[in-house]
Design brief:
391 residues; alpha/beta; Rossmann fold; Heat Shock Protein 90; 5-stranded parallel beta sheet; 5-stranded mixed beta sheet; rod-shaped
């Protein structure tokens, strides 16, 4: 057994002497014998002790329990109680001081040595545990502080990003609006040129041809600006659902007229409308974006002279529409990206486009609380189906 420095606190001199001899036989060093709590504290003030053997009943103002409380608070040294009594009242008194062990007098040497070893082992383990706990608390404190600082930096970064996005949205909206007016003027001039070309003129055919090119180019650029403006509003969280009563027949005619005006590959659009109501309540601008983009894409990616089928029905308070073509189709590996902004499949070839149309469709359907599905096969065409609540 290892050697320890021990303080004996015992007011019975005979018991103290017997305990001293027993401990010294096991190579322990007795730093002193105190017959009162006050004297025990004085000895500890001047000497280091590994353990205290404490009699519970002491003469003076401080008994063993009060003395132990002071030792626990001031020195943090393990205490082994010595007592001739093992009654419940005595045991209840000592429990509150968290003693390292409790020995009943008279004791034998073997039992005493075992108690002392256990007391030292218990004390060391408790201190190791406390040290680990303190280290853990410190790590948690440091980590918490680091997370707090990181959160502050993240908040600053997010605020900065928000400001940049707002600035970007304002720039996009202002620039796009700025383009709208001159484009309208160019389109009007192109249409006037076409009117003049109808009269007898040596360059009649050339004027008509180039005026049509100008008109188509302006329409394409105008559509692009409309898409940019759309996403400018979306990114600025300014897209709202604004339902109003609308005449469905007039709406569909407007969509079809617009799409047909932009056909450049002689594709045709065949319609198949079911039992549609005369009026519905929905957001006409969002609906327009859905059907105009789906039909324009179907026409654009159809073969020259191909046919696009536009079906629309009204079922259980929902508009159910299908747009089918026999065009180039979408590669299966690229279909998961179909609604991503600016995504264009690799097989589009020289067909012009911004890659925004289907992204706009999906965004509008999210606001309308509608759904979209599609099936597509390369070389055989694509069919989109939408279901949109409309009362």
């Amino acid at each position: 057994m290892f050697s320890l420095k021990i303080l004996i606190v015992e007011d019975d001199s005979v018991s103290a002497l017997l305990l001293q001899r027993a401990l010294e036989k096991n190579n322990h060093e007795i730093i002193g014998i105190a017959d009162s709590g006050e004297k025990a504290l004085d000895l500890l003030e001047e000497n280091h002790s590994d353990i205290v053997m404490m009699d519970i009943n002491l003469a003076g103002e401080l008994d063993g329990i009060k003395t132990t409380e002071i030792i626990n608070e001031k020195y943090d040294i393990p205490v082994v109680y010595l007592s001739a009594s093992s009654d419940a009242e005595t045991l209840n008194k000592v429990v509150g001081t968290n003693p390292s062990a409790y020995v009943i007098k008279p004791f034998n040497i073997r039992e005493l040595n075992m108690v002392i070893e256990l007391a030292i082992y218990k004390d060391r383990k408790e201190k190791e545990l406390q040290k680990l706990n303190n280290e853990l608390e410190e790590k948690v404190r440091i980590r918490t502080a680091e997370l707090y600082e990181a959160n502050k930096e993240l908040t600053k970064a997010l605020e900065k990003e928000r400001e940049i996005n707002e600035l970007k949205s304002r720039i996009v909206l202002n620039v796009s609006h700025g383009f709208k007016t001159p484009l309208t003027s160019i389109l009007s001039s192109a249409q006037l040129l076409q009117m003049y070309a109808e009269k007898e003129h040596p360059f009649k055919q050339k004027i008509a041809k180039h005026a049509l090119k100008i008109e188509n180019s302006v329409r394409a650029l105008n559509n692009l600006l409309t898409s940019v403006l759309f996403f400018g509003k979306a990114d600025a969280n300014k897209m709202e659902y604004k339902p109003k009563k609308m005449f469905l027949g007039a709406f569909l005619k407007e969509v079809l007229d617009t799409v047909k005006a932009g056909i450049e590959n002689d594709a045709t659009i065949k319609t198949k409308f079911g039992n549609l109501p005369k009026t519905i309540t929905s957001d006409s601008e969002l609906l327009y974006q859905v059907f105009e983009n789906l039909l324009s894409n179907a026409v654009k990616y159809s073969k020259d002279g191909g046919e696009v089928l536009f079906e629309l029905d009204y079922v259980d308070g929902n508009l159910v529409g299908k747009v089918s073509d026999q065009g180039i189709g979408i590669p299966k590996s690229e279909q998961p990206q179909l609604f991503d902004r600016f995504f264009r499949a690799k097989n589009v070839g020289i067909v012009e486009g911004s890659g925004l149309g289907l992204s706009i469709v999906k965004k509008c359907l999210d606001v309308l609380k509608g759904d979209i599905t599609f099936v597509s096969e390369v070389g055989k065409g694509t069919t989109f189906e939408v279901t949109i609540p409309a009362k």
